[in-house]
Amino acid sequence: MYETNYHRASSVQEAVQMMGAAAEGKYLSGGMTIIPTMRQRLAAPSDLIDLRHIAEMKGIAVDGRSVRIGAATTHEEVATSAALAAVCPALCGLAGHIGDPAVRHMGTIGGSIANNDPAADYPAAMLGLDAVIVTDRREIMAGDFFTGLFETALEEGEIITAVRFETPAKAAYRKFPNPASRYAMTGVFVARRDNGDVRVAVTGAGSNGVFRHSGLEAALSANWSPDAVANVTVDASDLLADLHASAAYRANLVKVMTKRAVAAA
Amino acid sequence: MAKITMTVNGRQVSGVCDDRTLLVHFIRENLGLTGTHVGCDTSQCGACVIHMDGQSVKSCSILAAQAAGSSITTIEGLAQNGELHPVQAAFKAHHGLQCGFCTPGMVMTAVDMIRRHGSDLDEATVRAELEGNICRCTGYHNIVKAILAAVHETGGVRQAAE
User: Fold this and answer.
1) E strand or H helix at A37, and its extent?
2) Which residues of B touch A36 (CB under 8 A)?
3) Which of B2, B104, B127, B134 has the maximum number of C-beta atoms within 10 A of its C-beta?
4) Residue B161 above 50 pLDDT?
5) Separation in Å, CA of B66 to nearest CA in chain A
6) What sections of the protein cross the membrane (chain A) (predicted)?
């Protein structure tokens, strides 16, 4: 690992100031991606600004069907929140299958969303839940936030402080984990609103990161049932192909994971 | 350079290291506690698992500076008054190790598992939660057996965070 300077922020304001003073700074939350990346010398920030001790960025608040999750909330805290499980168990289940227990004790929702790994689970949930990404300076709809592979709408020095969303009537997430890395080779988050609106958000498969599938959404809006997926065509031309799976294989996985998610919702 | 103070196995310790020093290297090299192992260097194998503020974490993926001010338990901190911790005793009784390299991480992960699940811990959960700990000798079977036996031994009591 190249040299770096560590700073611990105690407030969002202080973190922004520290970032302003750094040559090429990076925010550090749980560190479950950035530290291994630095260790491999694939990243070399001059400064790391630790957000893990900022009280205002922690915790889960549920008010009726409105949910607000602080960006520094760990996967373990999301997975085991009784308040969240009562209104949106799909998100608890998703968080409980990220990485392994030791990773879930450190990794955070804000870190995962800011990193926008094309195989990460949370981006699918944010898009499927039509969540709002709250930062130190504005609010961004999930649909505008995830802009590409490891790319987001975040500006220089901008910090995600929380996410918030209204819980849908039904939701579920199903993924096909790579047998070795356990990252999603394809993961699908489905959500159905009281008015019948359906969102289908796909991670792990898109060559430009997480995306919604309009064909699946239309079919499930008309008929909320696993069988409704059967006649939908998933175009493989925009999907990832690598040594783990071809684009055609992933296209099929999109349908199978959607089917499983609807059955589970 | 960072001046680090933390509590390790109930004792306050401090040391000076680079800001980029990993917690596992601080524990092994500055504190001389070599029970915590470095295995894969890619955060997959779990040989470096310790407890930070009562929760299992991978000390190869955390900077020592991040852990400043925290309370750390390593494998050396489990045995009390010369008596093996029930999980350590169960690994011994059930032959849950062969070469032993992964064992410190396995034991720390197991203790954390029992803390969270108590007597609800079943075989499927043990196997699922060993996802982040790799063993190249045992085929896991005796590790799973040892952990389930330890749940029995400890009465399956969920423990408050250390």
Assistant:
1) helix A34-39
2) 42-43, 61
3) B104
4) no
5) 8
6) none
Contact A101, B129 (CB under 8 A): yes
Q: What is the pLDDT of residues B99-135, one digit of tens each?
A: 999 999 999 999 999 999 999 999 999 999 999 999 9
Instruction: Please state the rounded mean pLDDT for residues B2-22.
Output: 97
Chain A: which residues have CB within 8 Å of chain B?
A: 1-6, 8, 28, 31-32, 35-36, 38-40, 48, 50, 52, 76, 99-103, 105-106, 182
> pLDDT tens digits, residue range A100-114?
999 999 999 999 999
Q: pLDDT over 70 for what percent of chain A?
A: 100
Using pLDDT thresholds of 50, 70 and 90, give the confidence band for residue B157: low
DSSP A152-185: ESPPTT--EEEEEEEPPSEEEEEEEE-TTT--EE
Question: Residue B82's pLDDT is what?
Answer: 93
Helices A247-264 & A214-222 angle (0-180, nearest 10): 30
- Per the CB < 8 Å rule, is B132 touching A99? yes
Specify the residue for token string 């917690």. Answer: B23
Residue B32 identity = G
For A36, which of B19, B43, B65 is closest by C-beta distance?
B43
Type of residue at A124 = A
Which tens digits make up the pLDDT trace of B18-73? 999 999 999 999 999 999 999 997 889 999 999 999 999 999 999 999 999 999 99
Given the structure tokens 């045992």, which residue do they identify?
Answer: B138
Domains along chain A with CATH numbers: 5-50 (3.30.43.10), 59-166 (3.30.465.10), 170-264 (3.30.390.50)
Q: Sheet with A170-177: list strands edge to edge.
A: A170-177, A184-192, A198-203, A211-212
A48: amino acid identity, one letter: L
* Domains located in chain B, CATH noted: 2-77 (3.10.20.30), 86-153 (1.10.150.120)
In 3D space, the residue among B29, B45, B36, B43 whose CA is nearest the CA of residue B9 turns out to be B36
Give me B21's structure tokens.
């020093």
Q: How far is CA B70 from the centre of its chain?
A: 15
State whether A4 and B62 contact (CB < 8 Å): no
Euclidean distance between CA atoms B135 and B96, whole angstroms: 10
Query: Phi, psi (5° rounding) for residue A192?
Result: -125, 130
Amino acid letter, residue B76: E
